[in-house]
Write a structure and sequence with these properties.
This protein is of the alpha+beta class. It folds into two domains: 334 residues, Outer membrane efflux proteins (OEP); 84 residues. It has eight helices and eight strands, in the order H-E-H-H-E-E-E-E-H-H-E-H-E-E-H-H. A four-stranded antiparallel sheet has the order 2-5-7-8. Strands 1-6 form a two-stranded parallel sheet. Strands 3-4 form a two-stranded antiparallel sheet. The longest helix is centred in the middle third of the chain and has 68 residues. It is elongated, with a radius of gyration of 41 Å. The chain starts with a helix and ends in an 8-residue tail after the last helix.
């Protein structure tokens, strides 16, 4: 445990040297920044606004509509009408064609219409309310996905920093070993191949360190992208890993289950609309007011005169038979509703199973962290003792290298166990609906 603490101290020094005192961002700062600048969250917020506008659009169907229209007609041939000759004293059953009207006709009208009762309009209003709630849940799901991604990236960056610190400590040990081996070689107590082996190990550790540095920069770039920051932004993460080993999360309905339940409500609303539209009439009022103009251009009887025209009325519409189309739609919605209910049960059962598995995995990994920490301490002790024995001539270089490899394997196992624990804990937060509550 003392070794790990020393590595963490070294880690802070390395960060300060290699980042030019760049600002260290906590996970809370990353989450807060993503809340404002993440592009996916911005799109989701716009989708919420779109849903609000759709709800207002549905309500606007109840507001009276006024339309204006105007038209001009010039008749090159006036329309014909058949006049019964009996009107003029002629025989019954005989007609004479006659043209009525004037060549120039102008119409201008204002038309008003407003639904008094329409089951489909009221149903659409109710449905858009539920759809708005669905849009808000979709935003929460996007938010949860963004948080999950940022937590994962942050944890990966922390593990890489710890891995870098271990490698740096191992590199220091390897360089000391190289110095000792070279001295022994000068005293003819070690072979040239022994020096080459240690040099190879130093080179390998330096290469691994550069590889870890590159991976860390890549993860930082991914974090910047998730936060909505530019790649040029100078950013470092807090290397201190916060373990919440004993924390239990209260289970709540996950976003996915809440979304399916809301979709179920939309299907129920649509089914209700279809049922009402089969038996309930629609009632509308309408009205029109305007003017009609007639014109004649031949002298000496040319004129242009306008006459007002207006009317109001109501319209009642009742569905009698539409070829069983509505009946078929109702059957479809019932089946969709049944599938939705089944899906809710499926997701609930699946979530319960995943929660239990995540708890079991986290519990095992929590114990493994303690075990691997002890293994690092033991491996470090063995390495130090073997190094002393090598100086005293009671241990050869091969034993030192094997002890060093054992130490590195223990360190790697510890880091892998930590990252798996953090990921299982994060997965448990998500499955219990707590990921957005734990910032």
């Amino acid at each position: 445990m003392k070794l790990i603490k020393n590595c963490f101290t070294l880690l802070f020094i390395i960060i300060a040297i290699n980042t030019n005192y760049a600002q260290v961002w906590s996970i809370q700062q990353c989450i807060d920044t993503a809340q404002v600048r993440n592009k996916n969250l911005q799109i989701s917020r716009n989708n919420i606004s779109i849903g609000e506008q759709k709800a207002k659009e549905a309500k606007a169907s109840l507001i009276p509509k006024v339309n204006g229209s105007a038209d001009y007609k010039y008749f090159t041939n006036l329309p014909y009408q058949l006049m019964p000759l009996s009107v003029f004293g002629g025989p019954d059953g005989k007609f004479k064609e006659a043209q009525f009207g004037v060549p120039h006709n102008i119409n201008a009208n204002l038309q008003l219409s407003m639904p008094l009762y329409n089951p489909q309009v009221y149903g659409a209003i109710q449905t858009t309310k539920i759809a708005s709630a669905l849009t808000e849940l979709q935003y929460l799901r996007t938010e949860e996905q963004v948080y999950f991604e940022i937590y994962n990236l942050y944890y990966n960056a922390q593990i890489l920093l710890h891995q870098f610190a271990f490698l740096d400590s191992n590199l220091i040990n390897a360089e000391k070993l190289l110095t000792n081996t070279q001295l022994l070689h000068e005293q003819l107590l070690a072979k040239e191949t022994d020096v080459s082996k240690v040099k190879l190990q130093v080179a390998q550790l330096a290469t691994q360190q550069e590889s870890i540095r590159s991976k860390y920069e890549q993860v930082l770039n991914a974090i910047k992208f998730a936060l909505g920051l530019s790649i040029e932004q100078n950013l470092q993460i807090d290397p201190k890993i916060q373990f919440q080993n004993t924390r239990e999360y209260a289970s709540s309905s996950t976003i996915d289950i809440r979304i399916v339940k809301t979709q179920n409500q939309i299907l129920s609303s649509e089914l209700s609309i279809l049922n009402k539209s089969r038996f309930l009439p629609s009632l509308n009022i309408f009205g029109s007011y305007g003017t009609t103009g007639f014109g004649y251009t031949k002298a000496p009887n040319d004129f242009l005169k306008f006459y007002p025209i207006g009317f109001t009325g109501t319209q009642l519409s009742y569905p009698l038979f539409n070829g069983t189309v509505t009946h078929r739609k109702i059957n479809q919605k019932k089946l969709e509703l049944e599938n939705s209910q089944i899906q809710i049960g499926l997701l609930t059962d699946q979530n319960n199973m995943q929660v239990e598995n995540a708890k079991l995995q986290r519990s095992v990994l929590e114990k493994s962290i303690i075990t691997t920490t002890q293994q690092i301490t033991l491996a470090q002790t063995i390495y130090e003792q073997t190094t002393i024995q090598q100086k005293q001539g009671t241990a050869n270089l091969t034993e030192v290298l094997l002890a060093n490899n054992t130490l590195r394997e223990a360190q790697q196992t510890y880091l892998m166990t930590v990252i798996e624990f953090l990921k299982s804990d994060l997965e448990l937060k998500k499955l219990t609906g707590n990921i957005s509550k734990t910032k």
